[in-house]
Amino acid sequence: MPYPQSPFDSFVVSAGVSSPARRDRLCVEVLQGRPQQSDTVDGADIPLSLGASPKTLSAQYFYDARGSALFEAICDLPEYYLTRTERQILDQYAGEIVDWVGPGDLIELGSGSATKTRLLFRAYGDRHCAVRYVPIDVSGSMLKESALELLQQFPELEVHGLVGTYEEALAHLPQAQPDTQRTIMFLGSSLGNLNPVQCAQLFGRICDALRPGEFFLLGVDLQKPTAVLEAAYNDSQGVTAEFNLNMLRHLNWRFGGNFCLDQFEHRAIYNSEQHQIEMYLRSRCAQTVTLEALDFSCTFAADELLQTEISRKFDVDELSAVLQQAHSRSHPESCLRPVKIWTDPQGWYALILSQLQPAMP
């Protein structure tokens, strides 16, 4: 099983957070095993995606504990401007963001170590504004570690973590607190990993999770020169290559696979027509791979490419139009309307704040 199943209270006590008051501010739910879990929980999607032509894998398989740690390392690389630029925008405008959204639940999709989110927590504290943090991540170990760090750094913070996929978590959010608003946050340009259909589906789920007047804060990477983009995904230290190959290691331990990592190599190119980075693993030779737990085998030809990720780069006006096309099933008269956009001086990155508002007639 990919996520720890032991009671979280015992983890908290062993980590030294023994105060009952502190423990009352911390809850982590493992959503695995819910009736509506996604196929990526049990690997049911893998035979279809590896049996297709071209072969693909879901980017969710990057994120076992080691993959999550490697991604955190990528975020600190000199070539990887995304995290650094987004952090600069948040650092400059965190107070303004908090003034817009007000007190309530701050729900973060793909929370990781929550490093950048701490800038918002400081702004909440400066305004004596109550916030409950709801981090969502597929890595239970990463979520638990960051939750404990946050409680040490922000003693008044309440944390209700959800271990699972975005789909699972958005369908099982904790009950909203009285007289407060929800803000769903999706940072790091992780939206770029989704194709247009998946983006539309996610925006629809976000609409369903919000009430009219509540907010969605989205961080996206913008279109820029090819050389800048390709350098960010082919770093000189090889960390991104290690992150990409770790997906195969993850499949090996989780599903009894026999991928030989030395027989694959990392590639990342920018598709200027589709405005997206495409990340691949190239098979160095003809080979057959078996995943025993899935009772599945597939063959790779020499030089065959396995696509592990896309990272789309956005135009603000086009994305704003897509957001406004998202509607809530529970509030069909409402849509996500961008109300404020923050960018860096170079125009490389944007934070888009949308609000669930009545749709235009």
Provide an overview of this structure.
With 361 residues, this protein is an alpha/beta fold. Helices cover 35% and strands 26% of the residues. The strands form 3 sheets. It has an 8-stranded mixed beta sheet with strand order 1-5-4-3-6-7-14-13, sandwiched between helices. Strands 2-12-9-8 form a 4-stranded mixed beta sheet. Helix 4 packs antiparallel against helix 11 (239-255) and helix 5 (81-101) packs parallel to helix 6 (117-126). The longest helix is centred in the first third of the chain and has 21 residues, at 81-101. It is globular and about 60 Å long. Residues 1-21 and 33-40 have low confidence and may be disordered.
Oligomer: single chain
Number of helices: 12
Q: What structural class do helix, strand and pairing data support?
A: alpha/beta
Strand numbers in spatial order across the main sheet: 1-5-4-3-6-7-14-13
Report Rg. 20 Å
Q: What share of the residues does DSSP label as strand, in percent?
A: 25-35%
Low-confidence stretches: 1-21, 33-40
Query: Could you say which overall geometry the principal axes of the C-alpha atoms support?
Result: globular
Could you spell the SSE succession in H and E letters? Answer: HHEHEHHEHEHEHEHEHHEEEEEHEE
The end-to-end distance, rounded to whole angstroms, is 49 Å
Report the helical percentage: 25-40%
Count all strands and give the number. 14
The average pLDDT is 88
Largest sheet: 8 strands, mixed
